[in-house]
Amino acid sequence: MNPDLAWEVWSRERSERIENVLDGALAVASGTPRLLLDAMRYAALGGGKRVRALLAYAGGELTGADPDDVDGPAAAVELMHAYSLVHDDLPCMDDDALRRGKPSCHVAFGEAMALLAGDALQTLAFEVVVRTPAGEPAAQITLLAKASGASGMAGGQAIDLATVGDMLALNELEHMHALKTGALIRAAVRLGAGCGRPMRADENDALDRYSSAIGLGFQIVDDVLDVEGTALSLGKTAGKDAVQRKTTYASLLGLSAARERIEALRADAHAALGGMPTARRLIELADWISSRTH
């Protein structure tokens, strides 16, 4: 761990690192059907921003964790995220044919195989956490399960599907995305931090405030990019929120107010971790999340 590395170097090195870790986790296993493994690798490798893995590594740096110990949790949140994207793209969900600049998993492999690939990626995420040498595996598994289950990501997606065409109030929209997007982002930071020294109560509170701010900020940026971006720049279908008549921060607040909210959340993230010398990478991630263009 080199605290003097520039953000661009650190983030590139960690992105390359997690790609190698995921490649190893998705290596051929005895008895695994080849087509299923191909679909899993197609969905999880060779694309994506890897922001959840970066958050896990940055959380680990906050508590002095060895990056080797963070590899498992970082891979787990990426596998869980990949599973969610495979399922979200299915015709019964958001029905999207493009993901990470290539055909969605169900387009490439068929709906049934994509469904199984998502299931297998999800269970592999828990297997990877169990193999993590640092931290408390039971606590890590519980955290990941809650973040991805009915009170987290799956619950948020259920609300999203049930309210298509409805105009949500701002507090309802924020609640939905705190589950759908924010829960796994918070878990990524927590899982990484859990691989190092124990944190004090005030540090735990600060990390929760930081995670809430960047989780919401990440989603608002996504909503703005859905309006302003293109399929080429985003690697996924642009403008689909309007077509599906979904309430977004851009539609509810307007683009100008949405951008102001992003900047306010960036400031909140900075304030939450102010004075923590080992929080540099988390602060840099807050800046990157707020200013990203894809």
Describe this protein's structure.
- It is a single chain.
- This protein is mainly alpha-helical and 294 residues long.
- It has a domain at 7-200: Farnesyl Diphosphate Synthase (Orthogonal Bundle), CATH 1.10.600.10.
- 70% of the residues lie in helices and 1% in strands.
- The protein has 15 helices and two strands.
- The chain has a two-stranded antiparallel sheet.
- Helix 3 (51-62) packs across helix 9 (170-193), helix 3 runs antiparallel to helix 15 and helix 14 (255-272) runs antiparallel to helix 15 (280-291).
- Element-by-element helix/strand order: HHHHEEHHHHHHHHHHH
CATH class of the domain at 7-200: Mainly Alpha
Q: Based on helices, strands and strand pairing, what is the structural class?
A: mainly alpha
Biggest β-sheet description? 2 strands, antiparallel
What CATH calls the topology of the domain at 7-200 is Farnesyl Diphosphate Synthase
List low-pLDDT spans.
none
Query: How much strand?
Result: under 5%
Q: Please give the share of residues in helix.
A: over 70%
Number of helices: 15
General form: globular
| Superfamily (CATH H level) name of the domain at 7-200 | Farnesyl Diphosphate Synthase
What is the CATH architecture term of the domain at 7-200? Orthogonal Bundle
How far from one another are the termini?
Answer: 28 Å
Strand order across the largest sheet: 1-2
What is the tally of beta strands? 2
Average of per-residue pLDDT values = 91
